[in-house]
Amino acid sequence: MRESLGGIALSNGINEDGIVIDPGVGAWPPLSMDPIFTGGEPLRGDYIRGDSTYPWYSWDSIIIMNINRIRNELNRPVLVGISRKSFLERLMRRRAPPEERLFASVSAEAIAVLMGADAVRTHNVNESRDAIRVAEALRLCLNKESSMCNDELIKLVGAGNR
Fold this sequence. Notes:
Layout: H1 2-11, H2 56-65, H3 67-74, E1 79-81, H4 86-92, H5 102-114, E2 119-121, H6 125-139, H7 146-158
Parallel strand pairs: 1-2
């Protein structure tokens, strides 16, 4: 799969270091969940982008929760575009036009960064920047002992990274 993802870009003169993976939150055409995202048949209704087990809003959520796996398996940076997507409305469990999905967008973007995303494409630049900076700081502490987390955060904040 890695070869097929990079093959088109490489054959068109893109340097391998310039290839970034967008796993397709809210993507069309539909992809299947197995093993990561390797094709699939178009489905309708709640299963429009997943398969008969994964409704599209679940499929989009699972992509976000598996960003680190995608990064590791494809050995490429991952960029996600989550801002104002319709799956957020489903997870919010209420009708909300795109302009009412700010907090959901920012939350999902921060979680994506916590899960390993290297870049975020957003409509909410200022709000997303703040949430992502917090998520990046907290990501420094994932699976680390308290003292190591403390050292990392002091170094980050003390370095004047503003």
